[in-house]
Task: structure prediction
Amino acid sequence: MAKTLPKVDVVTVGVGWTGGIVAAECTKAGLKVVGLERGKERGTKNFANVHDEYRYAIRYELMQDLSKETVTFRNNRKQQALPMRQLGSFLLGEGLGGAGTHWNGQTFRFLPYDFKIKSITDKKYGKNFLGSDYILQDWGMDYDEIEPYYDRFEKICGISGEKNPLGGKRSDDYPTKPMKKTPLLKKFETATKKMGYHPYMMPSANLSAPYKNQYDQNINACQYCGFCERFGCEYGAKATPEVSVIPAALKTGKYEIRFNSNVVEVLTKGNKATGVRYMDSVTGEEYIQPADVVVLSAFMMNNAKLLMISKIGTMYDPSTGRGTLGRNYCYQIMPGATGFYDEQFNTFMGAGALGECLDDFNGDNFDHAKLGFIHGANIALTQIGLRPIGNNPTHSDTPTWGAEFKKESIENYTRTLSVGGQGASIAHKENYLTLDPKYKDAYGVPLLQVNYNFTDQDRKLHHFISKKCGDILKQMDAKKVEVRADLTDYSIVPYQSTHNTGGTVMSKTPEDGVVNNYLQHWDCENLFAVGAGSFPNNSGYNPTDTVGALALRCSEGIIKYSKKGGSLV
Result:
């Protein structure tokens, strides 16, 4: 029988960026917060010997344990969905800091276009430009409304960057200057400027200088060691939740984190949540944590799953188009090209967000009328530090094993450059999340089922952006350029991106989404679901800056709700 614990003001499910920001803001306002984290405690002190590619990058030391919980996947409704037995296409975070601990640090604002994507597309290209199978909707807020929260999050992180010449208006500069412009980045800059494009240094959470944020937390300067993605930072030089926000919440004395605490249900009575039920994953004990406010602050897939299990909201039905919970699942496409050179480069050095990029083919910065797709991609050359196990660049006609493969891998390891894009993803009626009817996790709870395949929109965008990337490499004097092959069907292996969005989308009205623009659930007034799940579409960027901004917006809403209750919009 579950043990009922004393009631608190706020309980968060997950202690990463969103849970950490909610805790920092709400405790500062005097609220008592409990954070339930199903993973372990960890921090900078645990990463002293982190430069182990096999342990962290190949065997996923910091990721979700799939032996306890995974997802099932299929391309379409005719297929049998099967469990993902080993992490592949995307990497689910677990433990203090969540995926925010092992991110690269690329911190882009979405474009103003993203927030009004339906209105702008309909006006410029006509209604139903993509066809009736695509789901276009404006967000529940516009760029001007979210901009102050972007500014606050970037100052929490100390982001190092410079103004995007084709981006939205900024109320202030980045708090620290851009990272070092290496010879490789200068090569990209020179080439793209000759082509008439507008390159700029990538906004980075790997900091160019030491920084103290508004929570009085110190973030150190990046050492350019090349171990960012999939690794915790041993120097405390990457803005992560456990460095930037969580210590501030703990200092208030109003915040408690419980580790190994896996939430399996949100408890409700009427149109309100009463708390959550969770399991201690070590002892097997079961607890009920009552709270005045419940915040789902886990990875977007887990937020959606908890709402589905708890029967909160209306499940999306692809046959009828009715319902919103699980709808608008979007991923991201990765177009690009590789250039082969005779000269050697120091590609083994770098940092997670060390890069030069451009947005000339992102959002609606170019005419789509005759292209058959909308949106685009941020195109970049990054110098993230290529590790030897995971990076074996060879020509496309080289065997994937054997003597020739080994020879080419060694030869090309420091003689190739890649220019790639983060391609936007538009919601489609057949791409959605639901509960699997057959498979369950270690706690007896149904697994989340991912239904996803690339669409014609994705394929056209991928082809277009890959060609543009190839053109840039030609301008950069590559001896040979190979453009990535056109998309076929999506596969859950190999790794592609952890930029999954949708499933609990934000909307202007209850009929069109799951949460309002304070991330407050339309059907359950003291329940908030914050994260990339609230995005109606995915942009041509990393989601973290927008997730952080929405977490600040959500915190503001929770504090308002704690004072007056009711709907906030």
Q: What stands out?
A: The radius of gyration is 23 Å.
